[in-house]
Amino acid sequence: SAVGNRQQRISKMAPGVRFGLLALAALVAAQTPCGTPDPASATCVCNGVKYDLSQMRGQDGTTRFSAPNGDYNYFLQMADGGLPASFPGCTFDPQLAIGNAGGQGDIDGNICYPIGAVGQQTWSIQGTGQGQVISVIFTGGQDGRQTALDVTCDPTTRGNLVARGESAPGSLIYELEMSSCAACEAGCDSPPGPPPPGPPGPPPPGPPSPTSCSLSPSSGAVWPSGRGSQGQAAQVSGTLPLQCKLALHLYAYDTAAPASPVAGNTTDFLITPNGVLVIVNGAPVRLAAPPGGYKIVSNLIVSEDTAYALMSSSADTRLYAINSSGIGSSLLVASSSTTSGILLPPITDATGNTVSIVGSAGSDLFTVDAKTEHISSAALGGAISFLAAACDGSGVAAAFDSNLVYVDLSGLIQWKTTVAGPVTGLVATDTLAIATTANVTTAIALQSGLIEWQLTGASACSQLPALTGHGNLVCAQASNAVAAIDPESGLVLWQLDAAGAVQDLLVDSAGNTVLVAVRGGLLAVQAVSAAGAPLWSTGFSGTGGRLGIVSGGQPAVLVYGSNSSLYVFGRCLCRTGDLRN
Fold it and tell me: Are the CB atoms for 309 and 294 separated by under 8 Å?
């Protein structure tokens, strides 16, 4: 039997390895055996119920699945005769190419090893109701390889594969986990509906693409991912808007680039060299200084009229809440000091209430439950430079150096891969993580970690990717240009020259792109329509700038240099304040 085969292998292994596999064998033995399976139809009767695992489907609608683990991709196909002899990422030895249910392929090539035969399978079942598990053991792989597949009942999906890899070095037993309605007693009589919709955003001029992240009620602008900035709906007119200067003397910003201003309902927040400036109804009312020994190490995010920032001391890193009264409560998120951190906009439910806050501190990714304040974390092995949450809030893509990692909100790493060069930007749709490097743009499937498409050379994004409300990707290119790209296909939709090197970019709720371009000591702010047509532009003196949205929905630019100032477009905020007081 499959259990007997496992135990035979276990007896030949080192004691430490044997302990883990003996526990695995005991678990299999404790399960209830099912009847004789029908490999042709991928069906079997378990506890008097006929289960049909041919109902499992991937996002492409086929019965073939793939998932990475370490240096290998793993492939599974129980139905339709098993895996083809050759397909992208996998080519079997011609003498071993027929009837394989499982395959293990080198992640950098096409060579594939059979790890289980469709015609040699044994089923068992454990538990009842939602969450019950059907286990299928496939034997007959190359050189004795086997696949141990656990399918958990999940009525919300037809199939979601995770590869755990070899159960122990040298065991030749490869563990795969699947969630699917096919493992439920009711089966998949009707295709599961889409996940619950995100909070409604401002209505776009046209129907949004299925890959577009919904804009939350308090987020009308999309920043390049990892910035975490947020504001209310920004409706930029097609004519040059009124310029007004909010004369806040941000004198120290010639040496340190600031974070973007963020907005609540009536309160704006801005990081300064000495703390967080709180602006209520256009008037600066307070400088919220960090507690003694702490320095701000992240961007600001905002929920209603409370902002959050990461602050670090020599001993730890904390998430601080900042309201109009100043800095208030704090929560320990890392028991170590860090000089870098990122916060994503709060993940909200359908009513706009904050469910969780996701961020990074150094090399640690963390999730804070807004109700319980429970913290889940994962150590990723390098200083995290970008974060991007999946549109449905189910997981987070993170980048460090040339590495991309996808982590669920419980802190479990789903896959890890590398791209061609250090990552310069990262966004996520509901199905893809899209990463930019200096001259390559790569789209990776969130479910599997496999590459969907790449752009190289002059067509590629070089930095600052952002998603529009219409589902397109907008980004800066190395040639002092901006471009829009279809995230599903990688097709370039339009390109437009900028006035200089693009330094910042955001997309408003109407699909317009606002960008900051710098040439010499001059800074240009340009607006481009969703179709790529110039709308307006204006200029300032300065060494750089960051874009944001202030309360009321107006776009703003924080111009920094020897006399840094915040400019707001569309209304006049002519009150003054000095950050040195």
Answer: no
Whole-number Cα distances in Å, 331 to 294, 325, 368, 389: 13, 18, 9, 22
Q: For residue 265, give both structure tokens.
A: 């309902």
Residues 441 and 460: beta-carbon distance below 8 Å? yes
Residue type, 222: V
Token pair recorded at residue 117: 């035969």
Three-class SS of residue 105? strand
Question: Measuring CA to CA, which residue among 567, 528, 522, 532 is closest to residue 549?
Answer: 567
Q: Are 247 and 569 in contact (CB under 8 A)?
A: no
What residues contact residue 422 under an 8 Å CB cut-off, 6+ apart? 385, 401, 402, 437, 438
Average pLDDT, the chain: 76
What are the pLDDT digits (tens) for 30-77?
589 999 999 888 999 999 999 999 999 876 678 899 888 888 889 999
Q: How far is CA 471 from CA 394, 435, 467, 511, 530, in A?
A: 19, 16, 6, 9, 11
- Helix (H) or strand (E) holding 2, with range, is helix 2-10
pLDDT in tens, 137-156: 999 999 999 999 999 998 88
Q: 252 exposed, middle or buried (CB, 10 Å; 0-12, 13-18, 19+)?
A: middle
For residue 573 the two structure tokens come to: 């905020």
Give the type of residue at 358.
Answer: V
Quick one: CA torsion of 195, 196, 199, 202, rounded to 10 degrees? 60
Question: In this structure, are residues 152 and 70 in contact, taking their beta carbons and an 8 Å threshold?
Answer: no
> Nearest Cα to 410, choosing from 450, 378, 449?
378
**Amino acid (1-letter code) at residue 470:** H
- Strands of the sheet containing 32-33, edge to edge, are 32-33, 121-126, 133-138, 146-153, 173-180, 160-166
pTM over 0.70: no
> In this structure, how many other beta carbons lie within 10 angstroms of the beta carbon of residue 534?
11
Phi, psi of 54 (to 5 degrees): -70, -10
How far is the C-alpha of 355 from the C-alpha of 369, rounded, in Å? 6
